[in-house]
Amino acid sequence: MTIVERFINYARFDTQSAEVEGKCPSTDKQMVFAEWLKDELVSEGLEDVELDSNGYIYATLPANTTRAVPTVGFIAHMDTSPDCSGEGVKPRIVTAYDGGDIVLDAEAGIVTSPQKFPELLDHKGEDIIVTDGHTLLGADDKAGIAEIVQAMAYLREHPEIEHGRIRVAFTPDEEIGRGADLFDVKKFACDWAYTMDGSEVGELEYENFNAASAVVEVEGLSVHPGYAKGKMVNAAFVATQFAQRVPDERPETTEGYEGFYHLVGMEGGVERATLTYIIRDHDRQTFESRKQTIAAIAGEMNEELGTESIKVTLKDQYYNMREVVEPQMHIIDIAKRAIEETGARCEVKAIRGGTDGARLSFMGLPCPNIFAGGMNFHGRHEFLPIPSLERAMQVVVNIARIVAE
Predict the structure, then answer these.
(1) How much is the pLDDT for 239?
(2) Which pLDDT band, with edges at 50, 70 and 90, does 21 fall under?
(3) What pLDDT was estimated at residue 152?
(4) Sheet architecture: strand order including 260-268
(5) Do the strands 192-198 and 369-371 form a parallel or antiparallel pair, or are they unpaired?
(6) Which of 100, 147, 370, 382 lies at a CB distance of 3.0 to 4.6 Å from 137, suitable for a disulfide?
(7) CB-based contacts of 116: which residues, under 8 Å, 6+ apart?
(8) Residues classed as catalytic
């Protein structure tokens, strides 16, 4: 089976995760795909194939050398984003992309244009997998799964390539931030691992945001508006004043290593109002300062109001994996060499987000992130250049060989 056939098989499964509490995987359809994938791993000759009750798959490609070689792991996630439909995905291949518009659905007028998505032009002349314009494609992260499985099949079929014991894992619910929640690091038993969950070809990432959530709850006091002077406390109005005091450092105004405060939700009325923020920064000290800023605004406003009507709940979500990975830079050096040996230019960059690898790194499994090749994730204009898919697979093979060397 070719890697393209493998990916298209995976893409046709609807595996959207959902914000459902107390259930893993969050959707039953993820488990349907997991059962199918488990059987495929067995048919491909992997050993110790296990699907646990929470939807995590673990498997092993045994070493083909008697020398002592570190055990390395490769990880990808099975779920797709809740942001765009994943039902009835219909992948198709645009052969030798000519640099113009790609019509996804002529009747509906859905077009992927390089004017809006200029990154398309980097792949002129290549075969590209696209959607029909009504769903996401699912390259995030079924491309990563296809690359890992294809690499394991390739290594099994080419015993002349020496490699140590390799572990693979496929996880649920990454898109809703829970992919590492029930990951069994001890069972996985690796010296280190890589997530295949990046985007453009050549990307290698071992820095990510430190992340926290902030829930700001405002308790108001409702009084008949005709007699409200000096008595009413309008929670919704107080919430808007709070939002205006937060520094104007937002996702839409920042880039690179610049952190931000992101207001992701706002609701309420006179009696009660709630603001929900996510706080992000690559620098740990600045990250802590941002959290203190949110708390300080609440303190100042409570003092001005003469009440304790504003309550802030801060919760750390994940941290910058650089703290864990940097003392073991051979992990990065190996990946960089593996990427460059495919003919790609390795671009080490910081993630303006987080990955399962960030949390796994702090759980005792150093885990940088490598490109999977897809572009424009989480939407109908997602696409996957086939050469990028094939290169990422070769990176996995190269890492296995280099580690054994």
Answers:
(1) 97
(2) confident
(3) 98
(4) 260-268, 272-281, 210-219, 310-318
(5) parallel
(6) 382
(7) 381
(8) 79, 174
pTM: 0.88
Contact indicator for 190, 73 with CB cutoff of 8 Å: yes
Task: Indicate the residue type of 399.
Answer: I
Q: Using DSSP, state whether 282 is helix, strand or coil.
A: coil
Let me know: does 82 contact 62? Beta carbons within 8 Å.
Answer: no
Share of the chain above pLDDT 90, in %: 91
Average pLDDT value over all residues in the chain = 95
Q: What is the mean pLDDT of residues 272-299?
A: 97
189 Cβ contact partners less than 8 Å away, ≥ 6 residues apart: 71, 167
Q: How many whole angstroms separate alpha carbon 89 and alpha carbon 78?
A: 15
Determine the Cα–Cα distance for residues 365 and 374; give it in Å rounded to an integer: 25
Closest alpha carbon to 63 in 165, 167, 141: 165
Measured distance CA(302)–CA(280) in Å, rounded: 25
CA torsion angle for 215, 364, 48, 399 (degrees, to 10)?
Answer: 110
Q: What are the C-alpha distances in Å from 77 to residues 57, 275, 298?
A: 10, 30, 38
Distance CA 218, CA 186 (A): 43
